[in-house]
Design goal:
Blueprint: H1 3-20, H2 28-31, H3 47-53, H4 55-63, H5 72-82, H6 91-103, E1 107-111, E2 120-124, H7 126-158
Antiparallel strand pairs: 1-2
Helix pairs in contact: 1-6, 3-7, 4-7, 5-6
Length: about 160
């Protein structure tokens, strides 16, 4: 493999991870019986702004600092649990994101069984903790805006 193809693959992995963080979807079952989760133009009704602000990346960085083992499928499950099913991340999103975080020095991964391929456990680095705090400053205001909008809708509909 030539050095340029290695660089190209890393660039492509970073690009894919950036795109992947934008791919978390609002599941159809959360949108209501038979109604599509997405609105016209491919925008999520509530989650689009949060995804663009970096919600999935922030959640992953937050969960990597937890007590439970952090590996791709477990992170996917935890994000679904934390969001009550409103944010779903698929493996095609999660694994490129984890690889990008590792390349950026924000996470460190180790194989469960070093001799054979198994689950890869990730943990947050000090640089990852700094990035998490920076990203939190960007995401939380958007999260507050979405919460305020939902509260206003609820007040209007329920009284």
């Amino acid at each position: 493999m030539s050095p340029s193809s290695s660089v190209d693959r890393r660039r492509e992995a970073r690009r894919a991870a950036r795109e992947a963080t934008r791919e978390a979807v609002l599941p159809e079952e959360a949108a209501g019986a038979g109604r599509p989760a997405r609105t016209g133009g491919g925008q999520e009704p509530l989650g689009g702004a949060l995804r663009r602000a970096g919600l999935v990346r922030l959640l992953v960085l937050q969960l990597l600092d937890g007590d439970e083992p952090a590996y791709g499928n477990r992170l996917i499950d935890r994000i679904r649990e934390l969001s009550g099913g409103l944010v779903a991340v698929n493996p095609n999103t999660m694994y490129p994101l984890l690889r990008a975080l590792e390349e950026e020095g924000l996470a460190v991964g180790e194989w469960e069984h070093p001799v054979r391929r198994s689950r890869r456990f990730y943990r947050l680095t000090d640089a990852g903790a700094v990035e998490r705090e920076r990203l939190r400053g960007e995401v939380v205001p958007t999260l507050d805006e979405v919460a305020d909008a939902v509260a206003a809708l609820r007040r209007e509909l329920v009284g």
